[in-house]
Amino acid sequence: MLPLKEKDKSIIQKLLTAGCCARCILRFCCISVHAAYRRPHQDTLKELQTFITDTENSKSQDSAAESTEGNNDSHDASVSDAPEEPLSKKAKLDVSAASEEDESRVCGLCLGILQELSDPSRAAKIAEAVKTENYKFDTMVLSVSLPAQLCVREHSCWLHVKKEVREKSAVLDKDDVIQVKEAFKWVMQGLVAKELGGVDVVTKSEFEVGVEFTHPETDADCHFLASTCPDCFKPTKNKQSVFTRMAVVKALEKIPDSKFLKHYPCPPTRPNSSCTAKDVQCLHVSVFVAGRYNKFCRSLPQTPWVIDGERRMESSVEELIAAPILLAFRADGFNFSSSGREDVDVRTLGNGRPFAMELLNPHRSRLSRVEMKRLQETINDSSDKIRVRDLQIVTREAMSRMKEGEEEKTKSYTALVWTQKPIQRADITFIDDIKDLTLDQKTPLRVLHRRALAVRQRVIHSMNARFLDPHHFHLGLKTQAGTYIKEFVHGDFGRTKPNLCQLLQTDTDILELDVEVRHTGSSNNRSSYSMWK
User: Fold this and answer.
1) What's 461's DSSP letter?
2) Which of 83, 406, 460, 470 is the most exposed place for a label (fewest CB within 10 A)?
3) Which residues pair with 472 in a beta bridge?
């Protein structure tokens, strides 16, 4: 039995006559019992008809009983009761005629979404689309995208029944009406879950199955709002139409009832066809994988190196790491980031450089510890140019923290330096005594095309020099992160001051550079994130 009340009778009659489907009538009666919407559409329609008929018969019987008991009442009083029977018969005829049409015609309110588009065959199609994509998931959320004109039709129907609601002194607001989207989910969630073998369909999940409906026949329903409420519809770059659901709702809140009724029929006209269901879209939230990498090659860029549309190197650190990870998680794409970056001719040694990857729409979201270890070995076996360690799945928050406090971190480097003037061992010993040397570094010429022109202060905490021959020595440096080492060595035409040329009073240049160790600014956090930090 449907939980209907006497106050619902007039609403049911009006909506049946207007050509609304049984489930839409339940919505306007504010029925929030999920099971009521899961019943077959035809069964619900019959019960609505029975509810009205029984109510009318009950009234007729009560009226007859009162007439029999009140034979001594005045003739005028009995005449005043007479119109009740013809109205009752008319209501029955209207409802009967409307219900016969309702079996075959499209609902003018939901445009068929709560009719044949909410049956088991539709659920089977949704489930089949999900199975075809071959995702691995434990729970899912069903999302629904509806055409914006449904808001206009809903508003029209609300105005159609509002008078009845007020006359019955019912405490009911437009916001109390159950939304089409919610009713659709109540009907379909259980059916889809059953088709997928009992998977939990919940309100919040990492895996989303999207169902979208369109109805070109009634697209023009919203157009009158553009002239009546022009400030609600602003063109945007990313939207194909200005008639977004949000814009339409905003316009309907502003437009007076009288103006709305001048431009749009009340109740809305019934369409000739139902909505069209577009392809089911499956989407899993991003998964984040992080670790550290070493780079042993002096001809390998961190990311694909493309200049003027032409690729300069056959591979990159990013691609060597990403390819096996994408395959393992079956992701559609990725975003690669790291804590700093090295030049193409610089090696990254020591404990490695932290990196993280955002995997877009992964079809598999979890790997065991053993599988992650095997994945790490796969990456390391694929090339002798790089090596990764501490590969693990991390949270989005951990990934965002990777770049926090960059300027507080320190790095250790080893550089092979050439000097134009011949030197002796004693000429470079003073370098070991230099502590916390502050540099003013104007944006280097080599990166000026991608970085803003500015003067940045950086600190070299300590240095040590190891003599090799009269024109070469090894220079060890411990510096603030972000220091341009090459520019400190050769001066960058005086853009870095002081520089090694000034300190040694001869032209110097850097032949080789290695990142040896990367120190963190703080070690309080011992979470899994700190393993790759």
Assistant:
1) E
2) 83
3) 418, 469
pLDDT band at residue 264 using 50, 70 and 90 as cut-offs: very high
Tell me if 473 sits within 8 A of 423, measured CB to CB. Answer: yes
Residues 6+ apart with CB under 8 A from 512: 298, 345, 415, 416
Please tell me whether residue 418 adopts helix, strand or coil conformation.
strand
Mean pLDDT within 375-383: 97
pLDDT tens readout for residues 412-450: 999 999 999 999 999 999 999 999 999 999 999 999 988
**How far lies 205's CA from each of 96, 141, 208, 279, 284, in Å?**
44, 6, 7, 21, 9
In angstroms, the CA 477 to CA 253 distance is 66
- For residue 426, give every residue at least 6 positions away whose Cβ sits within 8 Å of its Cβ, in sequence order, or none: none
10 Å CB burial of residue 39 (0-12, 13-18, 19+) is middle
Distance linking the first and last C-alpha atoms of the chain = 62
Number of H helices, E strands in the chain: 18, 17
Do 293 and 353 touch, CB atoms closer than 8 A? yes
Give mean pLDDT, residues 221-235: 91
What angle, 0 to 180 degrees and rounded to 10, lies between the N-to-C axes of helices 120-133 and 180-195?
60
What is the band of 87 on the pLDDT scale with cuts at 50, 70, 90? very low
CA angle at 373 for the pair 370 and 377, rounded to the nearest 5°:
135
Other Cβ atoms less than 10 A from the Cβ of 270: the count is 16
What confidence score (pLDDT) does residue 169 get?
53
The tens digit of pLDDT for each residue in 485-529 reads 999 999 999 999 999 999 999 999 999 999 997 766 544 443 444
Whole-number Å distance between alpha carbons of 508 and 500: 7
Closest CA to 456 of 514, 495, 489, 499: 495
pTM above 0.85, yes or no: no
522 burial level (CB within 10 Å; 0-12, 13-18, 19+): exposed
How many other C-beta atoms lie within 10 A of the C-beta of residue 434? Answer: 15
In this structure, the number of other CB atoms found within 10 A of the CB of residue 345 comes to 15
Residue 252 has pLDDT above 80, yes or no: yes
Q: Looking at per-residue confidence, does 349 or 78 come out higher?
A: 349
Q: How far apart are CA 210 and CA 194, in angstroms?
A: 17
pLDDT of residue 80: 38
Going by C-alpha positions, the residue among 370, 365, 209 that lies closest to residue 277 is: 209
- State the pLDDT confidence band at 406, using cuts at 50, 70 and 90: low
Q: Comparing C-alpha atoms, which of 476, 518, 483, 520 is closest to residue 352? A: 518
Distance CA 86, CA 68 (A): 19
- How far apart CA 357 and CA 337 sit, in angstroms, is 6
Cis amide linkage into residue 470, ω under 30° from 0: no
Angstrom distance (rounded) from CA 109 to CA 269: 9
Q: Give the Cα separation of 337 and 533 in Å (integer).
A: 13
